[in-house]
Amino acid sequence: MSDRDYLVSLVKEADLYKEQGLLVESKGKYVQALQFLRKSEVFRGEERVEKVVRKRIKLVEQELEKLKQDQRLPQLPKGQKELIKELFRFSEARETSAIEGAVALAHFGQYEEAIEEFRTLLKKGTLPIIAAKNIIRCYMSLSLPGAAIAEFEDWVSSGLMSSKDLEYLREFLKDSLKNKGITLRIPELNHDVSETVPFTKEEDEDLIQISAIRIEMDEGPLRGHCLDLDVNFQVGNILKVIVSSQTEEVLEAFRLGTRFSNIQFYSNITVFRGSGVVSRKLKIEKGERKGDYSIDITIEDA
């Protein structure tokens, strides 16, 4: 594939993501196209092409900012969250009551806490299909379809559910994406999950490998402070960092769907600025960092 064809394919993919409302993914592809433009000898001096890509990035940024303002969710004190769970538990059966409490959290917009509750129930084998379906619903409500797919991939590899249950959940996830007008790859149960990663090896190598980030906090109790974090792993434009459970204020700042507009990215060849969104948050269950949280930050602009 020629450089020109490769650039066109990146821009077309970004356009498709934008049409489907996947603004974070769209921006990631436009940014990837811009980085490729700067590296390619074929496009050296073609400022018009770079200007077109930059304009599209700016339009996506404007839509993301509008979405950020529209989707700002109310945060409740921990005591009120527990109260909501108790007030909306109507069933005498313990299992059904536990599900009702988690569903109530989701209804009040406390999606992160609801997902944690549903995950706990799923691992215990408490109405796992209902718990899993509600996890998918929460991610879709947060406009994080990629996180819903990643969660499904975890279920496939965990062995917690039967093939029949996984097939049912796959169809439910597929329908949920379709209803939102979203077309994304979902892992087949008889294929290796790694085949569904949205970045090819070639594309991944085109991206700058980031080793650490500094986030300038512009909201909440940490406003005006900077957080320095090492990047433990990178897949395309998704960075994985670990946040200690001991730092409650910091942990609270990394709520699902939170967007950071001022991030400084460090690599072995350069330092640059951009923005990103918290697209996934998982509690570490084993190892020396048990109890801490693994957090995915999807780069929106760089």
How does the SSE layout of this entry go?
Layout: H1 3-19, H2 23-39, H3 47-70, H4 78-87, H5 94-107, H6 111-124, H7 128-141, H8 145-158, H9 163-179, H10 201-206, E1 210-216, E2 226-230, E3 233-235, E4 238-243, H11 248-253, E5 259-267, E6 271-283, E7 293-301
Antiparallel strand pairs: 1-2, 1-5, 3-4, 4-7, 5-6, 6-7
Helix pairs in contact: 1-2, 2-3, 4-5, 5-6, 6-7, 7-8, 7-9, 8-9
Write up what this structure looks like.
The structure is a single chain. With 302 residues, this protein is of the alpha+beta class. The chain is built from 11 helices and 7 strands. Strands 2-1-5-6-7-4-3 form a 7-stranded antiparallel sheet. Helix 8 (145-158) runs antiparallel to helix 9.
Question: What's the CATH topology label of the largest domain?
Answer: Serine Threonine Protein Phosphatase 5, Tetratricopeptide repeat
Order of helices and strands: HHHHHHHHHHEEEEHEEE
Overall radius of gyration: 20 Å
- Calculate the terminal CA-CA distance, rounded to whole Å: 26 Å
Could you give the order of strands across the largest sheet? 2-1-5-6-7-4-3
Number of helices: 11
- Molecular shape: globular
Provide the low-confidence segments as ranges: 83-93, 191-205
Average residue pLDDT? 78
The structural domain count equals 3
CATH architecture of the largest domain: Alpha Horseshoe
Going by helix content, strand content and strand pairing, the class is: alpha+beta
Give the amount of beta strand, in percent: 15-25%
- Based on DSSP secondary structure assignment, what is the total number of beta strands? 7
CATH class category of the largest domain: Mainly Alpha
Share of residues in helices: 40-55%
Largest sheet: 7 strands, antiparallel
